[in-house]
Amino acid sequence: MGYFMTSRSQNRPNIRAVAMQAGVSTATVSRAINTPERLDPETLKRVLHVVQELGYVPNLTGRSLVMGRTHAVGVVVPNVGWPLFASFARGIEMELNASTLMPIIVSTDDLQDREKDAARALVERSVDGLILISSNLAPGEIERLAPNMFRVHINPQIDGHEHQIRVDDVAGGYLAADHLIKSGHKRIAHVAGEFRSGRDRAQGFLKRLSEEGLEPFVLYTGDFTVEAGEKSVDKILEIGVPDAIFAASDLMAAGVCRALNRAGLRVPDAVSVMGYDDNPIAALLDPPLTTIRQLDIELGKMAGKMFLSLMEGEEAHSEIIVPELIERQTTRSRLRR
Amino acid sequence: MGYFMTSRSQNRPNIRAVAMQAGVSTATVSRAINTPERLDPETLKRVLHVVQELGYVPNLTGRSLVMGRTHAVGVVVPNVGWPLFASFARGIEMELNASTLMPIIVSTDDLQDREKDAARALVERSVDGLILISSNLAPGEIERLAPNMFRVHINPQIDGHEHQIRVDDVAGGYLAADHLIKSGHKRIAHVAGEFRSGRDRAQGFLKRLSEEGLEPFVLYTGDFTVEAGEKSVDKILEIGVPDAIFAASDLMAAGVCRALNRAGLRVPDAVSVMGYDDNPIAALLDPPLTTIRQLDIELGKMAGKMFLSLMEGEEAHSEIIVPELIERQTTRSRLRR
DNA sequence: ATGAAAGCGCTAACAT
DNA sequence: ATGTTAGCGCTTTCAT
């Protein structure tokens, strides 16, 4: 690493400069900033005038050191670049905006080592706490890395964390199957996804089917991508043409639709299709995709809210988010009138 | 705001705890961390052992105070939740990962006041510098808010900033028109966008047309949304059916495609369509959208790189990014063989 | 090679 | 109502 200039930002006026200029002690300046009501109006006015004049901006680093708080909270996500996590981060930011807390977002690429590095870097910065989504770290591990820190976990891959928010993927899968069944579909294929979320969605799907005494038409497992959705259609059509296909992600559903179109099967006339996520693309597909909404921004807001309540001394608790159905135009009732 | 617990994170071992336990001075511990080569191997080993034992993690707040650097850089974007800015932020993060710098991302909702607040909050945190994209602040304003700070500006709405990166929207519009003209389209409509970027794209588009002696079929201005794209088609079809429609955003292009389909006009057989951005949805539309790519991640990386070089003392300079054509399946040659 | 001491910018007893 | 002073965790001269 090269040589870093550091001289430029050095000349910011500090509390002492203000104090001297105003002819008061630094304590008085501090009070003018933090507890103005405890100051003589005259002095206050004089101090604030100097603050203005010098363009004094308090240095939070100094304050943090004595207060033992940075008013920063680390947000650990797999990748801020991805829409889901971007929205999630934005939700946290919105919620925290009302407080004095500022989120610091770090991406891990879903790598355990990078996650450890991230946690460590945030601890070094003495953040007041951590919000982690889709973490791969075991509770003991994270406690070792960030001891005694306020933490909120969203959908950790490894169980046993307190202060959890879980998105109920089982309920989401169940909801999708329920919608298809209620609108008269019988032969329903599922393009499942990986990881816990994929498995949970499949589980909920199967549960609803079994309540009806139905078997899945086909179960195919993909990796959440468009290509996986396209490939799944090949497999499915080898068996026959189902009434409906439920894919565990909107991307896979997009692939499913595209492949069905190519095979000359119109959506939803020939086959109904459902996705999962309510990815921004869902509404833009033609026809717009019926899907299960994961309210990412809301999830972020909820996480922010839970973090705030933790700092205020609230007991550990968990919450569960139940996804909702967004009915658009890729599903269509098969009930005869 | 309620009462915040603060006792939890207080008991982190500090440099003095390590020093005492190892029977050395704090200076030695500091050296063990920062300049291990200047220590007696025996002492070093002993100190590091205690560091391990106690789980000592240096407190960057203290270090920042004495060093006058936080190794943090503020990133000011309109909204981290939007794909473009999320990718941009991710690009910065990737570039900065190799250094000791950590980005702190703040959203402003494109509001001047929020932007001032953001700048101020980041200055309070004593960030080493600022990266701003689509800023609405005048150079003097931002200099007043963040005096003597390293700054990189990307596409500011107000000109006159140093260390700029500009995305050449004129070239992008030119490129789109060029592609359509070279593939034999004559009657070309443009659905323009707002702001400087929208105007620039339109300008480039018109420039290429005029080189050919062509007039635009229609010029309609929308607000970058899907709905604007749909509405534009109504207006365009009032005049007639063009050979091609070039929309200033992929979202508008998606709306254009949808409306054309509804009107019974197949894309690209009846009408070619082009978008702009290479939004993730572009590849997923059916048919996949031909568009102009704004390499958002690359833009972020470039911004990070420029910031790093600034800190290393490099002179102020500007860069321009020229977008590239991504040819997919919504355009089709009208040249007879 | 290591330690003692000063100081980065700030706040909070404590004193007046 | 305001000032004095100590100290938050760390690095860095200056001694030794």
TrEMBL record, chains A, B:
InterPro entries in the record: HTH_LacI (IPR000843), LacI/GalR-like_sensor (IPR046335), Lambda_DNA-bd_dom_sf (IPR010982), Peripla_BP_I (IPR028082)
UniProt-listed Pfam families: LacI, Peripla_BP_3
SUPFAM superfamilies linked to this entry: lambda repressor-like DNA-binding domains, Periplasmic binding protein-like I
Keyword Secreted: no
PROSITE patterns: HTH_LACI_2 (PS50932)
Keywords carried by this UniProt record: DNA-binding, Repressor, Transcription, Transcription regulation
Ranges where the HTH lacI-type domain occurs: 13-67
PANTHER family: HTH-TYPE TRANSCRIPTIONAL REPRESSOR PURR-RELATED, LACI-RELATED TRANSCRIPTIONAL REPRESSOR
Name of the protein in its database record: LacI family transcriptional regulator
Organism the protein comes from: Deinococcus roseus
